[in-house]
Design goal:
By secondary structure, the protein is an alpha+beta fold. It contains 8 helices and 18 strands. The protein folds into 2 domains: 179 residues, FAD/NAD(P)-binding domain (3-Layer(bba) Sandwich); 78 residues, D-Amino Acid Oxidase, subunit A, domain 2 (D-Amino Acid Oxidase, Chain A, domain 2, 2-Layer Sandwich).
């Protein structure tokens, strides 16, 4: 099937979709390429476990397999490495949690995901084995370099990846499709801090390099703006202090709104003739985007059907 895949957006969903289209030999164009604040603020961490509840993420294995395949292809094809090797280390702050972790490790599929606990900074932590992070700014910039300018060539599909506010205003999505979530993060300097990877407890501490760390993130369902708050800062600093009692210097405090949906399932599919959306990925966007982008391309190429769980029409008439 010939024609251009014209993508508008510029954030994580749009960037990953562009890579997946190129991986299939399709041509891609960028239209109104402007990353949303939520993508610019995203940590890039991928992790197949909801660590607060010790539950597996929806479609975790398919998502991990597709993520590793896509970024492996990018490195093999372009020589550009977007994945970072640091794993997520979950804090196990009492004997019960330590015993629960060890008990889960004995059985599949947890045995391929949970590593051995270890002592760190007078605490117990344990690695999530198939976890890591994507350097999101590098992903966004790299994808943009591969996009072609809009031409007069026939368009196979127009795909809109605008996030929640523009998804409603521009893409014909129902406002009730979304349950957006404001999140805040800090960037800090931590002199003397050393850790085996990305430490996760009440907050995560993500090493960005040159002594800089990102601490996140909060979840707030009202005041949906991009204004950092004292409440958010206090919550993040308390979480940081529970993991690290050494000195820190605040460098930056930022906020954005995640495009989460009302039923916590993304929006993937057609919204009109030749018009498609990839939206509503929420806080698991980095993990799920490669899989969902591949499935959307299957729909566009006529080799896959929409899934009822992610079909945007499930909110039609609401």
């Amino acid at each position: 099937m010939s024609g251009i895949v014209r993508i508008s957006g510029g954030g994580i969903a749009a960037s990953v979709l562009a890579l997946q289209a190129l991986r299939r030999g399709l041509r891609v164009e960028g239209s109104t390429w402007a990353p949303a604040a939520s993508s610019l603020l995203a940590s890039g961490i991928y992790n197949p476990i909801v660590l607060k509840r010790m539950k597996l993420v929806w479609r975790w294995k398919e998502a991990l397999d597709e993520l590793e395949a896509l970024y492996g292809w990018v490195e093999d094809t372009y020589g550009s490495s977007l994945l970072e090797p640091e794993q997520v280390y979950q804090r196990l702050d009492n004997a019960q949690k330590l015993n629960e972790w060890e008990g889960l490790r004995a059985d599949a599929p947890w045995s391929e995901l949970l590593g051995s606990p270890m002592r760190w900074n007078v605490q117990w932590v344990a690695p999530v084995l198939r976890s890591g992070w994507v350097r999101v700014p590098r992903l966004l910039e790299f994808s943009q370099t591969l996009m072609k300018s809009v031409t007069e060539e026939p368009v196979l599909a127009r795909v809109h990846c605008h996030g929640w506010a523009q998804g409603v205003r521009r893409d014909g999505l129902s406002e009730r499709s979304f349950n957006p979530v404001k999140g805040e993060v800090l960037r800090v300097l931590l002199p003397g801090y050393e850790a085996p990877g990305i430490v996760h407890g009440p907050v995560f501490i993500l090493p960005l390099g040159a002594g800089l760390y990102q601490v996140g993130a909060t979840y707030q369902w009202d005041a949906l703006d991009e204004v950092p708050t004292a409440k958010g800062s206090d919550e993040l600093i308390r979480g940081l202090r529970s993991l690290w009692d050494g000195p820190f210097e605040l460098v930056e405090h930022r906020a954005a709104v995640r495009p989460a949906t009302a039923d916590r399932r993304p929006l993937v599919g057609a919204v009109g003739p030749g018009e498609w959306v990839l939206n509503g990925l929420g806080s698991r966007g980095i993990l799920l985007a490669p899989l969902l982008a591949a499935e959307l391309l299957d729909q566009i190429l006529g080799v896959g059907a929409p899934l009822s769980e992610t079909d945007p029409s499930r909110f039609a008439g609401s």
